[in-house]
């Protein structure tokens, strides 16, 4: 057995190199041709039934508006019912023929079962499931509560919330030859410090739904979205605290986001609906953020050193004195690269 592995250690890299040389050009040409066909024959979502989790703000809110403009019927779900009702009213005004609101917490398996059942009972079908609900915390791993409750809450919402909802939706999506949209993140490969479990939850989503794509085959198409920094309550600085409450910490947001431009939620939502309608496997928005994957793949040490140098202050100094925030404050870039919606500390409370 050892001889076999020694042989493969020699042969596999060489075989892979020449395979890439000969296969990559025709492979990319073929994919380019397919992308043109998918654009021409993109799905018309008018009349289709769409479930959007985490629809009370940010990307989820703007996905409701984008699907609404295209005439889709919507089931909007989140924990804040009043906000959902306001968003539902606007989605109707924009063109959605029917919108229902379902108050649910996706970290609870029974709520996930109920939101799918209520949607199908009302509309009679399900065409797109958009797993968008997510929360974040900014916390060094060693500073977390010993019972890990802070980190479990992140995983329960970000990962298990999508898994639970998908489990109950899959039979209906098979019937309609429907689609799943998964809100992962570029954080699944760009591992910002202080967000270790958030990053892990997004990487877990990618791994899970990549596997599920194989299991479901052509019956249900899956689009995995990996946004960079997008206008939302997270980039506004809303983080889960040690006591389980959500608070806005814009100084820590500035440390984490620093001078990276934050893209609009409306533009991101439009790109997501276009991508899902075409049946794309992956979408990174804004598209330039894909280059960070290459940096992480080919220069991991440089990426890690960059984070250490920029995201941490000198020993004994507050985290808010990190160079990443000082650069933002010194240059005054915040007013240029941050949308006005995330510059205010005021967030939705109901």
Automatic annotation (TrEMBL):
<protein>
    <submittedName>
        <fullName>Dehydrogenase/reductase SDR family protein 7-like protein</fullName>
    </submittedName>
</protein>
<dbReference type="GO" id="GO:0006694">
    <property type="term" value="P:steroid biosynthetic process"/>
</dbReference>
<keyword id="KW-0735">Signal-anchor</keyword>
<keyword id="KW-0812">Transmembrane</keyword>
<keyword id="KW-0444">Lipid biosynthesis</keyword>
<dbReference type="GO" id="GO:0005829">
    <property type="term" value="C:cytosol"/>
</dbReference>
<keyword id="KW-0752">Steroid biosynthesis</keyword>
<keyword id="KW-0521">NADP</keyword>
<dbReference type="InterPro" id="IPR020904">
    <property type="entry name" value="Sc_DH/Rdtase_CS"/>
</dbReference>
<keyword id="KW-0443">Lipid metabolism</keyword>
<dbReference type="GO" id="GO:0072582">
    <property type="term" value="F:17-beta-hydroxysteroid dehydrogenase (NADP+) activity"/>
</dbReference>
<dbReference type="GO" id="GO:0016020">
    <property type="term" value="C:membrane"/>
</dbReference>
<dbReference type="InterPro" id="IPR036291">
    <property type="entry name" value="NAD(P)-bd_dom_sf"/>
</dbReference>
<keyword id="KW-0560">Oxidoreductase</keyword>
<dbReference type="Pfam" id="PF00106">
    <property type="entry name" value="adh_short"/>
</dbReference>
<dbReference type="InterPro" id="IPR002347">
    <property type="entry name" value="SDR_fam"/>
</dbReference>
<comment type="similarity">
    <text>Belongs to the short-chain dehydrogenases/reductases (SDR) family.</text>
</comment>
């Amino acid at each position: 057995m050892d001889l076999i592995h020694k042989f493969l250690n020699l042969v596999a890299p060489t075989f892979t190199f020449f395979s890439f040389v000969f296969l990559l050009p025709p492979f990319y040409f073929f994919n380019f041709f397919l992308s043109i066909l998918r654009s021409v024959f993109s799905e018309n979502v008018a009349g289709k039934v769409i479930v959007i989790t985490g629809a009370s703000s940010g990307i989820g809110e703007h996905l409701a508006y984008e699907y609404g403009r295209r005439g889709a019927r919507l089931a909007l779900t989140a924990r804040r019912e009043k906000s959902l009702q306001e968003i539902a009213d606007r989605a109707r005004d924009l063109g959605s023929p029917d919108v229902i609101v379902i108050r649910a917490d996706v970290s609870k398996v029974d709520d996930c079962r109920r939101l799918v059942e209520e949607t199908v009972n009302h509309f009679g079908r399900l065409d797109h499931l958009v797993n968008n609900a997510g929360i974040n915390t900014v916390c060094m791993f060693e500073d977390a509560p010993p019972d890990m409750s802070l980190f479990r809450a992140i995983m329960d919402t970000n990962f298990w919330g999508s898994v639970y909802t998908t489990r109950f939706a899959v039979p209906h999506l098979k019937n309609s030859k429907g689609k799943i949209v998964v809100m992962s993140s570029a954080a699944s490969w760009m591992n910002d410090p202080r967000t270790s479990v958030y990053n892990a939850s997004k990487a877990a989503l990618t791994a899970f739904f990549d596997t599920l794509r194989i299991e479901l085959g052509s019956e249900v198409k899956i689009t995995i979205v990996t946004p960079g920094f997008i206008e939302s309550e997270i980039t506004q600085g809303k983080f889960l605290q040690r006591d389980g409450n959500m608070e806005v910490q814009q100084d820590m947001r500035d440390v984490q986001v620093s001078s990276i431009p934050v893209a609009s939620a409306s533009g991101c939502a439009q790109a997501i609906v276009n991508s899902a309608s075409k049946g794309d496997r992956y979408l990174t928005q804004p598209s330039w953020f894909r280059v960070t994957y290459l940096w992480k793949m080919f220069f991991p040490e440089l990426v890690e050193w960059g984070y250490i140098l920029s995201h941490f202050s000198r020993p004994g100094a507050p985290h808010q004195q990190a160079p990443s925030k000082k650069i933002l404050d010194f240059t005054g870039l915040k007013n240029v690269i941050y949308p006005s919606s995330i510059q205010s500390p005021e967030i939705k409370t109901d």
